[in-house]
Design a protein that fits this description.
This protein has nine helices and six strands, in the order H-H-H-H-H-H-H-H-H-E-E-E-E-E-E. The protein is of the alpha+beta class and about 350 residues long. It has two domains: about 200 residues, Orthogonal Bundle (Helix Hairpins), CATH 1.10.287; about 130 residues, endopeptidase fold (from Nostoc punctiforme). Strands 1-6-2-3-4-5 form a six-stranded antiparallel beta sheet, with helices on one face. A hairpin with a 5-residue loop joins strand 2 and strand 3. Helix 2 packs across helix 3. It is elongated and about 105 Å long.
Length: about 350
Amino acid sequence: MAAQRKAAHRKPRQGLFTAPAVRTAASLALAGAATATAFEGAAQAEPQLTPVEVKAAVDRLYHEAEVATEKYNGAKEKAAATEKSLGALSDEAARRTERLNAARNALGSFATAQYRSGGIDPAVQLALSSDPDAFLERASYQDRVGDRQAGAVNGVRRQIGEIAQLRARAEDQLEALTARRAELREQKDTVRTKLAAAQKLLATLSDDQRAAYEGAGDGAHGGSVRTPRGATPAPNARAAQAVAFAYGAIGKPYVWGATGPDSFDCSGLTQAAWRAAGVSLPRTTYSQIDTGTRVSRSELAPGDLVFFYSGISHVGMYIGGGQMIHAPRPGAPVRVASINDMPFSGATRVA
């Protein structure tokens, strides 16, 4: 390690934010972070990282946490939909069971009536009847009752089959819900692990270094430069409402999984902003990009959603002048940033 440090001092120092320096530092820092995690609690000295290495590793961890956050949001949305579907199936099964019980009661009444009639042969009943015409009329009625009884039996059989199908569907939905809850726990654990590792690395910085990192624009999450409102007019009233909401959220904290009103994650902010304008967006970045109409970077207008990274793991709201409002990461509140600060992957116009 000492030899590496000496070699580093003999080479010209690269700028803090240059791409080669960040890539090299990220690799070194991640290796160091992995070593520290593997031997946490053991009597082994942890490698000392330079501020640039810490920054690169923290950026990487925050990005990985954001990817896991969007997966968590998606799993949560699916779990909620599955729970709703399961509830609807349960309600329908209960209603059909009530109807089945009523049909069974009707069959019981038919059976009781037959028992009371003694099952006498119709020809004997006709011979003993003092009023053959009246008997024939009653016999005709009983035939109709028999038809009704057969229909009731078939109805019960059908209802039993339908209830069995409902229960099978409910079992499938319950199995899916169990899997989605397991995915929720997995993604939640991933987010917490990444954030804890990032906080551990940040704790190695001095107060001034950490404050500079939290407040500075950087290659992953952008800064806090503000653009005067109204510099670029929104294309319509709904977009203007969404943009106004985003401006009103500036300064509120980033909290993973949050959709407001007091805190947000990236897709939670854009969803809440457009909800304020009367438009319902899906929960995740990779779903939001498929909403509305795709637009090119040169066509961007205020209110458009802008997406970043190859996995569509981050989103912001374009406000004009090459800038957006977004919820960057833990420790960095909702702010204005340049859309050039992250690898641009696409944009969509919601309304």
